[in-house]
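#random but structural
TW: two for the price of one
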Amino acid sequence: MFDANGAGIAANQVYEPIRICVICVKDNPRYPYKPNVPLTILVNPELELLTEDTFDNYEGCLSIPNLRGVAPRATHVRLRAWDRQGKSLDYEVRGLTAGTFQHELDHLDGKLFIDRVKDTTTLSTWQDFERHHMAAWVERAKAIVAEYGS
């Protein structure tokens, strides 16, 4: 995850058939618009949507290198899991960070972001994303952070 400047990774992405994922965003050059998230390890996580409100999230994935696309994500979710010491976690996240958590938990359920893409014309390579969509997406991401927080 760190070597590829990812925002998270699920165990099954590295061939471990267990329900664990890791999320960490710290001034990530691949995702400069994402709010920082401290290293978070989720064991047997469960996600509850707390709203029907969604935002269109431009996503990429370490499992599908060099591809980006727009996937709708809930703006507000609740997470329940254990941390790596077995302590119960129960908290809510909003905005872009909620999208990041949904993306990683999808992996644990056998889904990729491309399974969520509704309009396949939004799919692009990283190079085309940076050239044609990045500037507008960064402005939209800033608006999402301003509206929902992280």
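TW: number two ↓
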Amino acid sequence: MIYILLADGFEDIEALVPRDVLCRAGVDVQTVGLNSNIIRSTNKLEVKVDKLMDEIEFESLEGIILPGGMPGASNLQKDDNVLKLIDFCYKNNLMIAAICAAPMILGKIGILAGKESCCYPGFERYLEKSIVNEKSVNVCQNIITSRGPGTSFDFAFAILEYLRGSDIKDKISSQMQYKI
């Protein structure tokens, strides 16, 4: 199971594009709200989530996705349960994917140290001891980072390739008419 963690102020496309791509590939994916069944995006889109944080099932967990957007990324960063989930994923070598402002969460807790990463311009200072570059997506071991809304498809397909391999990624990108 892949969980997409949503907090008020998340960036629409950074959450919904990965969800769509993964669903098309048959990956089990669910949206998770921090403390409400309805989460509002930066653009005022209201999303009814599949689960709340306290309903996450750790036994089937393959990884998590942290969308950016402000104040969505800051709201995720302030939540102790989110930080515990990230720590669990990191310690168990499960996928952690963060886009836009959300890589700052990973940088602040030290799991990007010595790893290549990227983020939305201006957030580099939060990626402490990381090797920051301007690629649209970085895959470094089990951590995937991406720059922002415009890289959402690249991000989604990098996640899919990480989880299911390049053949599935190529099949789904072809079906969606997306050229990688």
